Amino acid sequence: MTEHADRGGDAAGPGTSAPDPGDWPQTETMRLLRHLLDVATRVRPAMARRTGLSTSELIALEHLYLEPLGPNEIGERLGVSSAATTQIVDRLTGHGHVTRDPHPSDRRRRVVTLTDSGRAEVIAEIAPMIEGLVAADAELDEAEREIVARYLRSAIEAFTRVL
């Protein structure tokens, strides 16, 4: 019995009853979703190993691919301390993947910008995955795409419940 259940409720919370995971429906979509999640959890660490970066450094590059960020913003997005952020940015700078530049409107701040080599590193690592996902999406007609989108929105909502 869980500690929560010992206090008078079940593991899902007071007044609710969650099915035992062994009783969850074993549909093809549930099995495939579980498999996708298992594979997805291994993607970043594998990419980081191949590039000689830490997982945090790789995630920072992913964020910087979208837009330049201040060090504080990087730390917030990664959920790390300012000291850890400084180390991450220092290592990425040492690899030549980012630069620290003056903020365009606030001289007291710095902005971290992805370099061409950093951009190339990200693209080289994710291109095969993106190409495969684009190809899979292209095989769907609009009606199928809407069904998949509805399922994925519901799955995202379910995951968000435990954050």
From TrEMBL:
One Pfam family of this chain: MarR_2
Domain of life: Bacteria
Single GO MF annotation: DNA-binding transcription factor activity
InterPro entries in the record: HTH_MarR-typ, MarR/SlyA-like, WH-like_DNA-bd_sf, WH_DNA-bd_sf
Keywords, alphabetical: DNA-binding
One BP annotation, GO: response to stress
Region (Disordered) residue spans: 1-26
Keyword Nucleotide-binding: no
Domain HTH marR-type: 29-163
Name of the protein described by the UniProt record: DNA-binding MarR family transcriptional regulator
Provenance organism: Mumia flava
